[in-house]
Specification:
The protein is 87% helix and 0% strand. The chain is mostly helical. The protein has one domain. Helix 1 packs across helix 3 and helix 2 (19-37) runs antiparallel to helix 3 (44-81). It starts with a helix and ends with a helix.
Length: 82
């Protein structure tokens, strides 16, 4: 793992623990879910767009967690080598 990757992972870890970011993502998810629940039965395109928006929001958390997991794996690998 490069130093840049390590720094990125540490920043990702800090972001995952950031209350404001988590509140913002939760608010966005709640808004999208509310909009999705209130779509009319025939609004297939609108629901598909909202589902895509929800996946995009969730993918932010997934990417951050992936970077943190990569760091944890690299640390374990380094410990095994030592």
């Amino acid at each position: 793992m490069t130093e840049d990757e390590r720094v990125r992972a540490l920043r990702a870890q800090a972001l995952l623990g950031d209350e404001t970011l988590n509140e913002a993502l939760a608010a966005l998810e709640a808004r999208v879910l509310d909009l999705w629940k209130n779509t009319s039965p025939g609004a297939v395109t609108a629901r598909e767009e909202l589902a895509a928006e929800m996946r995009a929001i969730q993918s932010i958390r997934v990417q951050l967690q992936t970077w943190v997991s990569d760091l944890a794996f690299a640390v374990r690998q380094q410990e095994r080598r030592s």
